[in-house]
Amino acid sequence: KILILDFGSQVTQLIARRIREAHVFCEVHPCDVTDDWLRAYARDGNLKGIILSGSHASVYEESTDKAPQVVFELGVPVLGICYGMQTMAHQLGGIVTSGHQREFGHADVRAHGHTALLKGIQDYATSMGHGMLRVWMSHGDKVTELPPGFKLMASTDSCPIAGMADEERRFYAVQFHPEVTHTKLGAAVLERFVLDICGTRADWIMGDYISEAVAQIRAQVGDEEVILGLSGGVDSSVAAALIHRAIGDQLTCVFVDHGLLRLNEGDRVMEMFVGKLHAKVVRVDAAEQFLGHLAGVSDPEAKRKIIGREFVEVFKAQALALTASAAIKNGESGSRCVKGATWLAQGTIYPDVIESGGAKNKKAVVIKSHHNVGGLPEQLGLKLLEPLRELFKDEVRELGVALGLPYHMVYRHPFPGPGLGVRILGEVKKEYADLLRRADAIFIEELNNFVDEATGKNWYQLTSQAFTVFLPVKSVGVMGDGRTYDYVVALRAVQTSDFMTADWAELPYALLKKVSSRIINEVRGINRVTYDVSSKPPATIEWE
Ligand code: XMP
């Protein structure tokens, strides 16, 4: 295995991710582990190499974090990245100087000599015969004098010592960030380190992650009980499946149906988790409560607030019931005391952790707006269990597939917490939600049916998010011999990589035609279908 010591950089988990992509097992631990801890960690002989990450500390706030000195005494290869390089230089007798200017952005690095790390790794060769590497830099301080035993491995115009190596001891360090995609050959550099220099085998797969995570969850939870808010979305579903794999019936999922879900969503979730996985799921039908509170409210933000507030209320009531110790009737032999839940599990994933600035503080609590149960763990005295907090979205999906969740559940489009509440413009009514659900199901079904010949993918896969919006206005139509006066829906489909900006999708006319005719024919009450051709910005993806 490879150990990554985390000095608090925002991109430390990217190092882990690149190593997982190279099919090598790695673990991230905080940089302040003790020498004794590290010696014990290395005792079984499985530790093949150590990577020292960058730090979040800027030029002006000096970091005093150091690597445990034992790092350099275990006889395993060490790679320092950015701050990791500086602390390596400092701890081994080199000199690090505070830079006056922060170097941030692309740089061209000249790889000197033929170190095992960078040999042959180059984007392009120069007439000087040096390989050039296009890299990403983000640092203020820099190494200005090599530690004894080290030779220069790489340099840039503004950073003469951008890489150093002591090949005898197998210590390598680079000032740039090989883990980010801006460093084009960065993955190759990391792969070279873990496979060739550390001599690990590329045999780790996501399936292995499951057994590691299962063992960890069992160790963490022991025989205690866990509750989890299940939405049917990717993250909470994968978290539920993983935790269930680990502790079975010690997990209780709470699925709140606020009446603003997609067609048959509740049944599908129950079928999957109860029917197939045999997990314990409490399904709460709170549609009446939500719709009651939403009656007469048309302001989008007010609607969001009400839905968020009611969600907390409903979830809290369930959580309270599940956390209370209870005496339950145990057959003929009398009562048995069941301990209440002491853990709240969440599908927090790594990007959520970064967003909250919690990358270094492992205790940072992240609550998704989706499951806005902020403050609940404290109020109920619950401990947090977040088994996905080191994974990226695509890794969560891969894990979901490895856990046996169906493809369509793991690769589904995002669905907002307030659900159809923000897709019914203005006041939310049950009648509107019922019409919208049916129209939306037709749209999604046809997106799945239509395959693009050029890519072989269907249009659900080719769009990032697609849904139907209910417009509470009526327009005139004609059906058979009669005049209709019915509602209008808008179809929305966008393509985006980050949901911050988005283009409306150029869906084939044949698809639009089919969807339109099916909705108008099959959903009595809707007689007009429009297609939204607005991009974000200036429009948003949702209509409210
Ligand atoms: P907008 O409409 O802001 O949407 O372009 C960007 C992404 O965020 C989702 N979204 C929400 N998700 N609660 C959520 O959980 C919300 O209140 C909410 N509003 C928007 C939206 O579906 C899209 O993916």
Automatic annotation (TrEMBL):
<dbReference type="GO" id="GO:0005829">
    <property type="term" value="C:cytosol"/>
</dbReference>
<comment type="subunit">
    <text>Homodimer.</text>
</comment>
<dbReference type="GO" id="GO:0005524">
    <property type="term" value="F:ATP binding"/>
</dbReference>
<feature type="domain" description="GMPS ATP-PPase">
    <location>
        <begin position="204"/>
        <end position="412"/>
    </location>
</feature>
<protein>
    <recommendedName>
        <fullName>GMP synthase [glutamine-hydrolyzing]</fullName>
        <ecNumber>6.3.5.2</ecNumber>
    </recommendedName>
</protein>
<dbReference type="Pfam" id="PF00117">
    <property type="entry name" value="GATase"/>
</dbReference>
<feature type="binding site">
    <location>
        <begin position="231"/>
        <end position="237"/>
    </location>
    <ligand>
        <name>ATP</name>
    </ligand>
</feature>
<dbReference type="InterPro" id="IPR029062">
    <property type="entry name" value="Class_I_gatase-like"/>
</dbReference>
<dbReference type="GO" id="GO:0003921">
    <property type="term" value="F:GMP synthase activity"/>
</dbReference>
<feature type="active site">
    <location>
        <position position="177"/>
    </location>
</feature>
<dbReference type="InterPro" id="IPR025777">
    <property type="entry name" value="GMPS_ATP_PPase_dom"/>
</dbReference>
<dbReference type="Pfam" id="PF00958">
    <property type="entry name" value="GMP_synt_C"/>
</dbReference>
<keyword id="KW-0547">Nucleotide-binding</keyword>
<feature type="active site" description="Nucleophile">
    <location>
        <position position="82"/>
    </location>
</feature>
<dbReference type="InterPro" id="IPR014729">
    <property type="entry name" value="Rossmann-like_a/b/a_fold"/>
</dbReference>
<dbReference type="InterPro" id="IPR001674">
    <property type="entry name" value="GMP_synth_C"/>
</dbReference>
<dbReference type="Pfam" id="PF02540">
    <property type="entry name" value="NAD_synthase"/>
</dbReference>
<comment type="function">
    <text>Catalyzes the synthesis of GMP from XMP.</text>
</comment>
<dbReference type="InterPro" id="IPR022310">
    <property type="entry name" value="NAD/GMP_synthase"/>
</dbReference>
<dbReference type="InterPro" id="IPR004739">
    <property type="entry name" value="GMP_synth_GATase"/>
</dbReference>
<keyword id="KW-0332">GMP biosynthesis</keyword>
<comment type="pathway">
    <text>Purine metabolism; GMP biosynthesis; GMP from XMP (L-Gln route): step 1/1.</text>
</comment>
<keyword id="KW-0315">Glutamine amidotransferase</keyword>
<feature type="active site">
    <location>
        <position position="179"/>
    </location>
</feature>
<keyword id="KW-0067">ATP-binding</keyword>
<dbReference type="InterPro" id="IPR017926">
    <property type="entry name" value="GATASE"/>
</dbReference>
<dbReference type="InterPro" id="IPR022955">
    <property type="entry name" value="GMP_synthase"/>
</dbReference>
<keyword id="KW-0436">Ligase</keyword>
<keyword id="KW-0658">Purine biosynthesis</keyword>
